[in-house]
Amino acid sequence: MQRSGLTRLVMVALLSGPAGAVSAQTASGVGGYESVDPMIGTGGEGHTFPGAVAPFGMVQLSPDTNTECKIRDCYKWAAGYRYTDTSITGFSHTHFSGAGHSDLGDVLVMPAVGADAAVALEPGDADTPGSGYRSRFSHASERATPGYYAVTLSDPGVRAELTAGTRVGVHRYTFPTDKPAHLIVDLRSSIYNYPGKILWSSLRMLPDGTITGARETRGWAPARKLFFAMRFSAPLTGHAFRNTETAIAYKGFKGPGRGDPGVAQIAGQALVARLDFGTLAKPLEVHVAVSGVDEAGALANLASESGSFDQIRAATRTAWDSALGAVEIDAAPAMRKTLYTALYHSLMAPSVFGDADGRYRGPDDQVHLAKGFTVHSTFSLWDTFRAEHPLLTLIQPAQRNADFVNSLVASIKASPFGILPVWQFQGRETWTMIGYHAAPVIADAYLKGIKGFDAEAALDAMVASADYALYGGIGDYKTLSYVPIDREPEAASKTVEYAYDDWSIARMARAMGRTAIADRFDKRALNWRNSFDPQTGFVRARKADGSFRVPFDPTAINYGSDYTEGNAWQYSWFMPQDEGGLIRALGGDAATVKKLDAMFDYDNSKIDYSHAEDIAGLIGQYIHGNEPSHHVAYLYAYAGAPWRTQERLAQIVASQYKPTPDGLAGNDDLGQMSAWLLFTAMGFYPVAPGSGEYVIGRPFADRIVLHLPNGKRFAIEAPGLSATNRYVGSVTLNGAALDRSFVRHDEIVAGGVLRFTMAAKPNTAWGNAAAARPYSITPYAVTVRR
């Protein structure tokens, strides 16, 4: 997706994974924590950050290497850091992991040395060393592990270390002992910065030396407020708060760009502070907490996670050991590193956004109190409903998943629009992407038996979102049974995505006994057919008069056109609830396999996609670097040819992932790219979340064990797996032959062993019968299970 005392035991409990999920070691003796490389994805188009974060942490404390890029060139710095850069601007406290668009980069801190008057308050030019507080660095000095990052800043000669708890980030700076030490706190800095983005900010010095502050920004999300509190392990010897606005007209200032050196508080749109500590004989620790509520909330969050740098780091290490220990991976070293890093990336979002006392700021910009759950935000739902959220239902406690649902429902209750989040962060809606994909996230959780939320209220919220006529052409969708392109952009994509979301609503409603809702949305779930053109075999955009829009080019990709970040080749496969219906529409199994092959084997040599930033990882017209293609390789199994899925998966994994900084072919999108790989490595994938099924592909690890939240274990074994033995010869579940190309969720959570016997040649007789194929509304050729 691209667009538009010692730390309290309660902290460890909040961050911990499933009970009994310890730091599992593989057969090689290397545990999950040691196998993670946070540098994977920091180059290329992965857009991940290397800094310190706790599992689902509210603080993501990480280095920024470019916050002053021109707006059209900022795509590469969506996470603030890019591996190919050679200097660091500072360390800020909020980041997205793998987003295709960005914001955040709040409360930038940077160490400096020298006489007070000589300390630069501007970052300077990256190409001119010494022109500002920016510093050069070498990758050789970097160290990154889950919850910890360190680097030596060459110009001031300072060793910087970072760690983070849930709501607190902790810095440790080792300064030269013979030079005065300083910190720059720059509230002007932001990722995707541009003039006028900072609406207002403030800094305040409390009597005990604590610094508090706030700022409001208009970036990707409008009118976003964030507050912070900052404490130090050494006393301040002086400070200067400055406003660099060109026009200043409020108390405490004597002119443009100047402030009283000792002023205790300041407000404005362009604030920067110099904090002085004199010469230091030991490292300086800086504790920073954030809050979306107020400065008092930030102070309380700071108090809720007390302890030294090493204590916070140890507690977060324990949390990561537990979270990563939910999955035990035995694989070749490169694959093990790639998979554990994928697991790490999948455990960052949705992130905590509620304060320690339960207060949070809602989409109505008012403060609310959560009762019985922890508020989370950063919902990249267009991406994460596909695999990220289904993965978390398997590897995170039910309470965490219930927190997600409760947070979504709480958002609609406080929303001025009466719709579930679309792409939300820090409680603010961005309206980025399409669909109402909170619906399948909620439905999938409910149908998997996750408790701890009001299912009736959740279903009502799903229906309200699906019926909100003013959003994305839904008014026309309800009357015409498709979205008309002459009234709404990206209409072809919206029609098929709405139909899938509708199906998930119907599934949940029927399970709850709300038959009228189920019947209505079951009908809407078939609306994908109204955008399918039998003449061309593609999903296409139709006008309000019923005609398909012309001219038609199935390879064309333009933002705001018929499709969302894709074209007809990708979107013509998006009816995961009814792939059997698509197969019939295409003319049967053989025709479907032929069309799938045509997609993967398409010659792109005469097509230029340079205008579309997020179109990465192309294999023909299959685009793995963006989400609409993610389920497509598994569709061969629906057409009775699962061995072809196995071939395509080998092609995708080999070309799209590697354990290097440029090891992700496209944006990780808050864990979706990573979750795809984890599922695929286990040998199955949730093509249709809400179906209760996972489509079997082929494994990419010798053995993976899921330590399930219910205390049971589910092992996936693949003896004989190798580059030669890349096909599935046979499959057993708990010792009994499994002749179908799917495994059910209830079979996994019951515990047991899924065993793949790998072979050098495809077994074309396995999984091809109609009754052996995954869920579909429309039966395959003959009567099947449903």
UniProtKB/TrEMBL annotation:
Gene3D superfamilies associated with the record: 2.70.98.10, alpha-1,2-mannosidase, alpha-1,2-mannosidases domains, GH92 mannosidase domain
All copies of domain Glycosyl hydrolase family 92 N-terminal, residue ranges: 36-291
The UniProt record lists the keyword Transit peptide: no
Coiled-coil residues: none
InterPro entries attached to this UniProt entry: 6-hairpin_glycosidase_sf (IPR008928), GH-type_carb-bd (IPR014718), GH92_a_mannosidase_put (IPR005887), GH92_N (IPR041371), Glyco_hydro_92 (IPR012939), PNGase (IPR050883)
GO molecular function terms attached to this record: carbohydrate binding; peptide-N4-(N-acetyl-beta-glucosaminyl)asparagine amidase activity
Signal peptide positions (record): 1-21
Keywords, comma-separated and alphabetical: Hydrolase, Signal
Record flagged with keyword Hydrolase: yes
Domain Glycosyl hydrolase family: start-end pairs: 298-759
GO biological process: carbohydrate metabolic process; glycoprotein catabolic process
One Pfam family in the UniProt entry: Glyco_hydro_92
Cellular component terms (Gene Ontology): cytosol
PANTHER family: PEPTIDE N-GLYCANASE PNGASE -RELATED, SECRETED PROTEIN
NCBIfam families in the cross-refs: aman2_put
Annotated protein name in UniProt: Glycoside hydrolase family 92 protein
Native source species: Sphingomonas glacialis
